[in-house]
Input
Amino acid sequence: MLRIHEELRRGALVNCTMLMHALEVSRKTVVRDIAFMRDRLELPIEFDSGIQAYRYTEKVSAFPTVNVTEGELLALLVAQRALEQYRGTPFHHQLEVAFAKLSGGLRDKISFSPADELRAVSFKNIGLGKTDLTVFNALSAAVLKSTEVGFAYRKPGETKTEPRRVQPYHLANRENSWYLVGFDLERGALRTFALPRIGDVVTTAVEFERPEDFSPEKFFSSALGVLGGEGNFAVVIRFDATVAERVREREWHESQEMRELPGGALELKLRLGALVEVEQWVLGWGAAAEVIGPAEFRASVKATVARLGQMYG
Output
């Protein structure tokens, strides 16, 4: 029906014989679909005996593929507002085009009151990652096609890049930034690469098979955000009553367990594979969060706090 609609909209000679050959369907199917478009979708189709073809009797801007309720339309408008949080990221343009296609297919006849309440809806993410669209597109294509890539990569804190040869498994958006998970052929292990630090991507025709047991959920299961590890740390953090409510309101990790403490305080338990990220996260709560265990985690935070004390005098 979409093909028929496009042919009618551009003014082509559309009849059963032409459509049977173009779509490789029977005459019965063509007649049925045109009848559906005319009677159910209310498209202005008529058969012109003068030219022995179907035509639109008036201009049709879009194929009416979507019927929505008032609540669904409101949700769609909220989704459009949510696109703003992706501005500057590789997906913004693609999402914008997709949304335009969805909204363009809405029926003309729809009952809906102006959604003034949408003025109260906004989205804001702090620290959106910057990613080169050329790099993103090259890597996403390699992930989909399962082909090896080469690129220059700069480690955190380094000024120089080094060449990497990788089998790309997965692209993940974690903590407002894009990461590539792939098998580093030289190092013989899975690695995580931040896209803002990737450059000079070279795609190849060398295909590979992604392991059947690989899953992004499993790979990131030991990480609070991005950086997992081979460890098995039972992290325990105590939050005082001033921030406990904010901690309760969120899902921080799949392993989390919460225990209420006297006076409105809260104890949070996590099972993680590394401590670097969780230490940075704990320090962000300031004196409202205290590390209870493990011992090496508490000692590391204590050392960091001592350095901060020296820094600020």
